[in-house]
Amino acid sequence: MPGMPSQDLSSSPFPLPEALQRRLVEAGEQLGLSPSETMERALNRLLRDPHGSAVYLSSPVDALMKGLYEENTTIGDLKRHGDFGLGTFNDLDGEMVMVDGKVYQLRDDGGAYEVGDDVKTPFACVTFFRPMSTDEIDGELDYAGFKNLLDRIIPSENMFFAIRIDGEFEHISGWTVPKQECQRPIAEVKPCPFEYRQITGMLAGFYAPRFIKSFVMSGYHLHFLSADRRVGGHLYQCRPTRLHISLQFISKLELSLPITLDYLTAKLL
Ligand SMILES: [Zn+2]
Q1: Mean of pLDDT over the chain
Q2: Exposure of 120 in the CB half-sphere (CA atoms within 13 A)
């Protein structure tokens, strides 16, 4: 509040050089604000999406984890909520990636196949992708270095971020899921691994806050699609050599609850 004693920002999660702190105090004094309030205003301007985008979840991921692999959301429905994202398909028939408004099925044969609007999904997480920051990184990174880089780029662990990474990879590995005939819990499904060397492509997905894990996978969740859009899957590890990272900050969540008999009668806890 104006008039409150100035707070020391050197111990804040955003440590600032002394000269910048002084300027923040001066700017705050002119506006009648404390340095923290001045900084909060600046962050608000930086992080608030002018379009008010939301992360849209077609169902809570906990339902998928319990084996509810059939839902009535179509890809057409999904496209009304976003043009970018990931998920899976009914009967767990492969991983899904959505880029530039096109949806690809990343099947257990390793191939990527564009799908039509009538195909159904039991779980998907999408948004309209409008990146607010970009970074170019050159030089080889191991997977720990890659994760560290992402941790440094996201400004807070408590927001959503849509992440698109176009890059060259010395090595990349991951998996897709095979179609399931029965509702066996996802932990019992045997994934189909993939591995590529010297490949160009894109990672698309989200960072979600840790506390939100009943709704959506928390932390980083990225799906790979090769530049020729012919192969891909869920990212496990990678060793990139060149990266172009686009990031969208999102502070809103929209959750849809399925209206299916399976979901309405499931014991989710
Ligand atoms: Zn995945």
Answers
A1: 90
A2: 10
d(CA 145, CA 147): 5
The answer to whether 117 touches 79, Cβ cutoff 8 Å, is yes
Cβ contacts of 25 within 8 Å, gap of 6 or more: 6, 35
pTM of the predicted structure, to 2 decimals: 0.87
Ordered alpha helix ranges (H), 124-200: 143-153
φ, ψ dihedrals at 120, nearest 5°:
-110, 155
* Centroid of ligand 1 to alpha carbon of 266 (angstroms): 23
How would residue 2 be classed by pLDDT, with cut points 50, 70 and 90? Answer: very low
Calculate how far, in angstroms, residue 175's C-alpha sits from the geometric centre of ligand 1.
8
**Could you identify the residue written with the tokens 């819990």?**
185
- Ligand 1 centroid to 223 CA: how many Å? 6
Query: At 25, is the secondary structure helix, strand, or coil?
Result: helix
Beta bridge partners of 193: 175
Instruction: Compute, in angstroms, the gap from residue 3 CA to the centroid of ligand 1.
Output: 49
Q: What's the pLDDT tens digit per position in 198-249?
A: 999 999 999 999 999 999 999 999 999 999 999 999 999 999 999 999 999 9
Q: Which amino acid is at 60?
A: P
- The whole-angstrom separation of Cα 139 and Cα 247 is 20
Token pair for 112: 């990527």
